[in-house]
Design brief:
Elements (H helix, E strand, L loop, with lengths): L8 E7 L3 E8 L9 E6 L2 E8 L5 H15 L6 H20 L8 E2 L1 E7 L2 E7 L3 E6 L2 E4 L6 H7 L5 H6 L19 E6 L5 E5 L1 H4 L4 H10 L3 H14 L6 E8 L4 H36 L2 E6 L2 E12 L2 E8 L10 H9 L1 E3 L2 H43 L1
Helix pairs in contact: 1-2, 6-7
Protein name: Stp1/IreP family PP2C-type Ser/Thr phosphatase
Pfam family, one: PP2C_2
Keywords: Membrane, Transmembrane, Transmembrane helix
Length: about 400
């Protein structure tokens, strides 16, 4: 049965970067007015089925969705979401006491908040929440109804419950008991999951197997909501029917994985940099502890560090010059100085330079003495030769 353009129908759809949604509510083919209410306040979604007759059920369900919409948490906290539903119960009771609606009016409430990969659920009554995952439909709420208790005890089957004469008896609802409590829980959802909320106008008319088939074959949430409402109408439309469908487009896990990967890479980079810094510090400390004698132009210099380069940067610095000329040193020493002669410390280096001074001075003294001796001998020989003549 076509659902577009029907009187007493309401359809809404929308999307954001994480989810897309579609909803349709229809008065059905038997009832004179629609007592269902729904709320699309992403990431919050609520379905409420009113009870209590004309001008009462819709009042109760309207109060329920308004209260939950106002008091629900901003995040997927099922405890706080359950508290919002319980607050709605008190508001429905107080409204009836104040003459708003009718005494005895009530409603169901099934609310969900979707926060990335977390689904928070709060539930009272026989409206339902399903999750469709990889083609399989799973009901995640438990009906608070007499026939559900019969199903739980094994007295009837789920299919028999849909047509049981006592199927309208609700064992827990908003609007009667001030101490009523809401079922609440959380579960994980993934990309591609489809969440379905509905009043019993769908679940009492269409078996879960057909709900699954229609949900799988519908491309968008709006199409799914339309097709499911159409199926309920085709099956007789004995009650108001409301369906809200939400698709998970982005559960945030890919983003979280990228964030963790970036954090891991950053941590590794920090560890590497810290290790390199420690190595560099150790190397610098070692280099600064080294001393050597080397070539400083035409003389011997005292250097701190190493006689080498790293990336074109000298690893040694000149600390002290000397008057020791390279030409005054043996060729073997000059060759060693080209490579750097390691010394223990600055004092040891200065001592070696002093020894070079002493050796050169001694060598020059010996050379001068030898020259003087040779000159004296030559003069003596000349004198001897003159006397003999």
């Amino acid at each position: 049965m076509a659902v577009e353009g029907r009187a007493g129908a309401d359809a809404v759809f929308g999307s954001n970067e994480f989810i897309s949604w579609g909803a349709r509510s229809d008065v059905g083919l038997v009832r004179g007015h629609n007592e269902d209410s729904f709320l699309l306040q992403a990431p919050l979604f609520v379905v409420s089925d009113g009870m209590g007759g004309h001008a009462a059920g819709e009042v109760a369900s309207s109060i329920a969705v308004e209260t939950v919409g106002r008091e629900a948490p901003a995040t997927a906290d099922d405890v706080l979401l359950g508290a919002a539903v319980e607050s709605a119960n008190r508001n429905v009771i107080e409204a009836a006491e104040q003459g708003i609606g009718k005494p005895g009016m009530g409603c169901t409430a099934t609310a969900v908040i979707i926060e990335k990969n977390l689904l928070a659920v709060a539930h009272v009554g026989d409206s339902r929440a399903y999750v469709l995952r990889e083609g399989t439909l799973v009901r995640i709420t438990h009906d608070h109804s007499y026939v559900e208790e019969l199903v739980d005890s094994g007295q009837i089957t789920a299919d028999e419950a849909r047509t049981h004469p006592s199927r309208s008896i609700i064992t827990r609802a908003l609007g009667s008991d001030p101490d009523m409590y809401a079922d609440h829980f959380s579960l994980e959802v993934n990309d591609g999951d489809r969440i379905i909320l509905c009043s019993d106008g769908l679940s009492s008319m269409v078996p879960d197997s057909e709900i699954e088939s229609l949900a799988v074959s519908s491309a968008t949430p709006k199409q799914a909501a339309d097709n499911l409402v159409a199926a309920a109408l085709t099956a007789g439309g004995a009650d108001n029917v409301t369906v809200v469908v939400v698709d998970i487009l982005n559960d945030g896990q890919a983003e979280e994985a990228r964030r963790r990967l970036f954090q891991g890479a950053a941590s590794i980079a920090c560890i590497i940099l810290a290790t390199l810094a420690v190595v560099a510090l150790v190397a610098l400390t070692f280099i600064r502890s080294e001393w050597y004698l080397g070539v400083n132009g035409t003389t011997v210099g005292l250097y701190r560090g190493m006689n080498a380069e790293f990336l074109g940067i000298p690893l040694g610095e000149l600390v002290s010059t000397s008057a020791v000329e390279l030409t005054d040193l043996p060729a073997a020493v000059r060759d060693q100085l080209e490579d750097g002669i390691r010394v223990e410390n600055e004092e040891a280096g200065r001592a070696v330079i002093d020894s070079y001074h002493q050796q050169i001075t001694a060598e020059k003294d010996r050379a001068a003495q030898t020259a003087e001796t040779a000159r004296s001998e030559t003069e003596a020989d000349g004198q001897d030769g003159g006397e003999q003549q």
